[in-house]
Specification:
alpha/beta; 10 helices; 7 strands
Protein backbone atom coordinates (compact mmCIF):
# COMPACT_ATOMS: atom_id res chain seq x y z
CA UNK A 1 0.00 0.00 0.00
CA UNK A 2 1.15 3.53 -0.72
CA UNK A 3 -0.07 7.11 -0.40
CA UNK A 4 -1.84 8.59 -3.41
CA UNK A 5 -0.09 10.91 -5.88
CA UNK A 6 -2.31 12.89 -8.24
CA UNK A 7 0.19 13.24 -11.08
CA UNK A 8 -1.63 12.51 -14.37
CA UNK A 9 -4.93 13.52 -12.70
CA UNK A 10 -4.02 17.06 -11.69
CA UNK A 11 -6.35 18.92 -14.07
CA UNK A 12 -9.30 16.63 -13.32
CA UNK A 13 -8.64 16.80 -9.59
CA UNK A 14 -8.31 20.60 -9.56
CA UNK A 15 -11.58 20.96 -11.48
CA UNK A 16 -13.37 18.60 -9.08
CA UNK A 17 -12.12 20.50 -6.05
CA UNK A 18 -13.04 24.11 -6.77
CA UNK A 19 -14.62 24.12 -10.23
CA UNK A 20 -18.00 22.86 -8.96
CA UNK A 21 -20.76 23.70 -6.48
CA UNK A 22 -19.14 21.18 -4.14
CA UNK A 23 -15.93 23.18 -4.35
CA UNK A 24 -17.69 26.47 -3.70
CA UNK A 25 -19.25 25.00 -0.56
CA UNK A 26 -15.90 23.70 0.58
CA UNK A 27 -14.23 27.07 0.02
CA UNK A 28 -17.03 28.94 1.79
CA UNK A 29 -17.02 26.75 4.91
CA UNK A 30 -13.24 26.60 5.23
CA UNK A 31 -12.81 30.34 4.77
CA UNK A 32 -15.62 31.07 7.25
CA UNK A 33 -13.65 28.99 9.79
CA UNK A 34 -10.18 30.30 8.90
CA UNK A 35 -10.82 34.01 8.52
CA UNK A 36 -11.36 34.87 12.21
CA UNK A 37 -8.21 32.95 13.16
CA UNK A 38 -6.18 34.84 10.57
CA UNK A 39 -7.67 38.15 11.72
CA UNK A 40 -6.86 37.36 15.36
CA UNK A 41 -3.16 37.50 14.48
CA UNK A 42 -3.57 40.83 12.64
CA UNK A 43 -1.58 42.87 11.77
CA UNK A 44 1.14 40.23 12.14
CA UNK A 45 2.35 38.55 8.95
CA UNK A 46 2.04 34.81 9.46
CA UNK A 47 4.11 31.85 8.32
CA UNK A 48 1.67 29.28 6.94
CA UNK A 49 2.31 25.75 5.68
CA UNK A 50 -0.17 24.31 3.18
CA UNK A 51 0.69 20.61 3.44
CA UNK A 52 -0.51 18.60 0.47
CA UNK A 53 -2.11 21.77 -0.84
CA UNK A 54 -2.24 20.84 -4.52
CA UNK A 55 -2.41 23.93 -6.71
CA UNK A 56 -2.72 26.13 -3.63
CA UNK A 57 -6.22 27.60 -3.61
CA UNK A 58 -5.88 28.77 0.00
CA UNK A 59 -2.14 29.38 -0.32
CA UNK A 60 -2.85 32.01 -2.95
CA UNK A 61 -5.71 33.52 -0.96
CA UNK A 62 -3.57 33.81 2.18
CA UNK A 63 -0.49 35.08 0.36
CA UNK A 64 -2.64 37.79 -1.25
CA UNK A 65 -3.32 39.03 2.30
CA UNK A 66 0.41 39.47 2.87
CA UNK A 67 1.28 36.21 4.60
CA UNK A 68 4.32 34.02 3.90
CA UNK A 69 3.21 30.62 2.62
CA UNK A 70 5.01 27.35 1.96
CA UNK A 71 3.00 25.14 -0.39
CA UNK A 72 4.00 21.48 -0.40
CA UNK A 73 2.69 18.68 -2.57
CA UNK A 74 3.87 15.25 -3.70
CA UNK A 75 2.52 15.90 -7.21
CA UNK A 76 4.85 17.80 -9.54
CA UNK A 77 1.93 18.42 -11.89
CA UNK A 78 -0.08 20.06 -9.12
CA UNK A 79 2.84 22.33 -8.29
CA UNK A 80 3.27 23.22 -11.97
CA UNK A 81 -0.36 24.32 -11.99
CA UNK A 82 0.25 26.28 -8.78
CA UNK A 83 3.26 28.04 -10.32
CA UNK A 84 1.27 29.00 -13.40
CA UNK A 85 -1.48 30.51 -11.27
CA UNK A 86 0.98 32.29 -8.98
CA UNK A 87 2.87 33.75 -11.95
CA UNK A 88 -0.42 34.99 -13.41
CA UNK A 89 -1.51 36.71 -10.19
CA UNK A 90 -2.06 40.46 -10.43
CA UNK A 91 0.07 41.08 -7.32
CA UNK A 92 3.26 39.27 -6.19
CA UNK A 93 2.56 36.32 -3.89
CA UNK A 94 5.07 35.19 -1.26
CA UNK A 95 4.67 31.44 -1.85
CA UNK A 96 7.50 28.92 -1.75
CA UNK A 97 6.78 25.69 -3.62
CA UNK A 98 8.15 22.44 -2.15
CA UNK A 99 7.93 19.19 -4.10
CA UNK A 100 7.86 16.60 -1.35
CA UNK A 101 5.80 14.05 0.51
CA UNK A 102 4.56 15.67 3.69
CA UNK A 103 6.23 12.90 5.71
CA UNK A 104 9.60 14.28 4.54
CA UNK A 105 9.05 17.87 5.68
CA UNK A 106 11.30 19.00 8.51
CA UNK A 107 11.51 22.03 10.76
CA UNK A 108 15.28 22.04 10.24
CA UNK A 109 14.78 22.84 6.55
CA UNK A 110 11.57 24.87 6.60
CA UNK A 111 11.38 26.35 10.09
CA UNK A 112 8.15 26.42 12.06
CA UNK A 113 4.74 27.85 11.26
CA UNK A 114 1.95 29.82 12.92
CA UNK A 115 -0.69 27.86 11.00
CA UNK A 116 -0.58 24.52 9.21
CA UNK A 117 -3.29 23.59 6.72
CA UNK A 118 -3.85 19.97 5.77
CA UNK A 119 -7.04 19.73 3.74
CA UNK A 120 -8.35 16.58 2.04
CA UNK A 121 -5.02 14.79 2.47
CA UNK A 122 -5.43 12.46 5.45
CA UNK A 123 -7.89 10.18 3.66
CA UNK A 124 -5.27 9.37 1.02
CA UNK A 125 -2.60 8.36 3.56
CA UNK A 126 -1.80 4.79 4.56
CA UNK A 127 -0.94 5.95 8.10
CA UNK A 128 -2.72 9.25 8.60
CA UNK A 129 -2.24 9.37 12.37
CA UNK A 130 1.58 9.15 12.25
CA UNK A 131 1.87 11.48 9.26
CA UNK A 132 -0.28 14.19 10.84
CA UNK A 133 1.54 13.85 14.14
CA UNK A 134 4.81 14.39 12.27
CA UNK A 135 3.45 17.64 10.81
CA UNK A 136 3.02 18.99 14.33
CA UNK A 137 6.81 19.13 14.65
CA UNK A 138 6.60 22.12 12.31
CA UNK A 139 3.94 23.94 14.33
CA UNK A 140 4.93 26.79 16.65
CA UNK A 141 3.84 26.79 20.31
CA UNK A 142 0.23 28.04 20.41
CA UNK A 143 0.11 27.46 16.65
CA UNK A 144 -3.09 26.42 14.86
CA UNK A 145 -3.65 23.20 12.91
CA UNK A 146 -6.44 23.21 10.29
CA UNK A 147 -7.37 19.65 9.30
CA UNK A 148 -10.11 18.66 6.87
CA UNK A 149 -10.70 14.94 6.32
CA UNK A 150 -13.13 12.64 4.50
CA UNK A 151 -15.80 11.37 6.88
CA UNK A 152 -16.29 7.60 6.78
CA UNK A 153 -19.62 7.70 8.61
CA UNK A 154 -21.03 10.15 6.07
CA UNK A 155 -19.73 7.90 3.32
CA UNK A 156 -21.68 5.01 4.89
CA UNK A 157 -24.86 7.06 5.37
CA UNK A 158 -24.83 8.30 1.77
CA UNK A 159 -24.50 4.71 0.57
CA UNK A 160 -27.35 3.56 2.83
CA UNK A 161 -29.82 6.19 1.62
CA UNK A 162 -28.78 5.38 -1.95
CA UNK A 163 -29.72 1.74 -1.37
CA UNK A 164 -26.16 0.45 -1.86
CA UNK A 165 -26.51 -2.11 0.91
CA UNK A 166 -24.07 -4.67 -0.52
CA UNK A 167 -21.40 -1.96 -0.65
CA UNK A 168 -22.04 -1.12 3.02
CA UNK A 169 -21.88 -4.81 3.97
CA UNK A 170 -18.44 -4.96 2.34
CA UNK A 171 -17.37 -2.10 4.65
CA UNK A 172 -17.45 0.19 1.60
CA UNK A 173 -14.74 -1.69 -0.24
CA UNK A 174 -15.06 -1.69 -4.02
CA UNK A 175 -13.92 -4.27 -6.54
CA UNK A 176 -12.81 -1.58 -8.98
CA UNK A 177 -11.17 1.49 -7.48
CA UNK A 178 -12.60 4.89 -8.45
CA UNK A 179 -9.54 7.10 -8.69
CA UNK A 180 -11.01 10.20 -7.04
CA UNK A 181 -12.71 8.32 -4.20
CA UNK A 182 -10.56 8.55 -1.04
CA UNK A 183 -8.83 5.35 -0.09
CA UNK A 184 -8.70 5.71 3.70
CA UNK A 185 -11.71 7.69 5.02
CA UNK A 186 -11.65 8.45 8.73
CA UNK A 187 -14.09 8.28 11.61
CA UNK A 188 -14.67 11.57 13.44
CA UNK A 189 -14.21 10.08 16.92
CA UNK A 190 -10.87 8.54 15.92
CA UNK A 191 -9.56 11.92 14.78
CA UNK A 192 -10.87 13.63 17.92
CA UNK A 193 -8.97 11.04 19.97
CA UNK A 194 -5.78 11.80 18.04
CA UNK A 195 -6.03 15.46 18.97
CA UNK A 196 -6.44 14.51 22.63
CA UNK A 197 -3.30 12.38 22.44
CA UNK A 198 -1.43 15.26 20.80
CA UNK A 199 -2.54 17.60 23.63
CA UNK A 200 -4.32 19.91 21.23
CA UNK A 201 -7.61 21.69 21.91
CA UNK A 202 -10.16 21.63 19.09
CA UNK A 203 -11.82 25.06 19.07
CA UNK A 204 -13.68 24.88 15.74
CA UNK A 205 -15.62 22.00 14.18
CA UNK A 206 -17.56 22.11 10.93
CA UNK A 207 -19.12 19.71 8.49
CA UNK A 208 -18.41 20.37 4.82
CA UNK A 209 -21.24 19.47 2.42
CA UNK A 210 -23.76 18.61 5.11
CA UNK A 211 -26.68 19.10 2.67
CA UNK A 212 -25.45 19.07 -0.91
CA UNK A 213 -24.60 15.38 -1.11
CA UNK A 214 -28.04 14.39 0.18
CA UNK A 215 -30.15 16.55 -2.14
CA UNK A 216 -32.95 14.83 -4.02
CA UNK A 217 -32.45 14.27 -7.71
CA UNK A 218 -35.48 16.41 -8.59
CA UNK A 219 -35.08 19.83 -7.03
CA UNK A 220 -37.89 22.42 -6.68
CA UNK A 221 -38.32 25.13 -9.33
CA UNK A 222 -36.07 28.13 -8.78
CA UNK A 223 -33.60 26.18 -6.63
CA UNK A 224 -30.77 28.56 -5.75
CA UNK A 225 -27.13 27.52 -5.51
CA UNK A 226 -26.37 30.63 -3.46
CA UNK A 227 -29.12 29.75 -1.00
CA UNK A 228 -27.71 26.22 -0.78
CA UNK A 229 -24.29 27.63 0.19
CA UNK A 230 -25.95 29.88 2.79
CA UNK A 231 -27.75 26.87 4.27
CA UNK A 232 -24.53 24.85 4.26
CA UNK A 233 -22.90 27.59 6.32
CA UNK A 234 -25.88 27.83 8.66
CA UNK A 235 -26.07 24.12 9.43
CA UNK A 236 -22.41 23.11 9.15
CA UNK A 237 -21.70 23.56 12.86
CA UNK A 238 -24.95 22.08 14.18
CA UNK A 239 -25.51 18.46 15.07
CA UNK A 240 -26.57 16.09 13.64
CA UNK A 241 -25.65 17.83 10.39
CA UNK A 242 -21.99 18.39 11.29
CA UNK A 243 -21.39 14.68 11.71
CA UNK A 244 -23.02 13.98 8.33
CA UNK A 245 -20.69 16.30 6.44
CA UNK A 246 -18.91 14.53 3.60
CA UNK A 247 -15.79 16.18 5.01
CA UNK A 248 -15.16 17.43 8.54
CA UNK A 249 -13.00 20.43 9.38
CA UNK A 250 -11.25 20.67 12.74
CA UNK A 251 -9.18 23.61 13.90
CA UNK A 252 -7.04 23.04 16.98
CA UNK A 253 -4.42 24.92 18.97
CA UNK A 254 -1.54 23.20 20.67
CA UNK A 255 -1.60 23.92 24.39
CA UNK A 256 2.12 23.40 24.93
Amino acid sequence: MQDTNFDTLSQKFAKNIYGTTKGEIRAAVLWRDLEPVINAFSPKSLRILDAGGGFGFFSQKLAALGHEVVLCDISAEMLDEAKAQIDAATTPLNITLVHSAIQDLSADELGTFDIILCHAVAEWLVDAKSTLQGLLNLLKPQGVFSLMFYNKEAMRFHSLISGNFDYVKRDMKVKKKVKLTPTYPLFIEDVRHWFTLWQMDIFCQSGVRVLNDYLKYHLPPGFSKQELIEMELEYSQREPYLSLGRYVHFMAKRNT
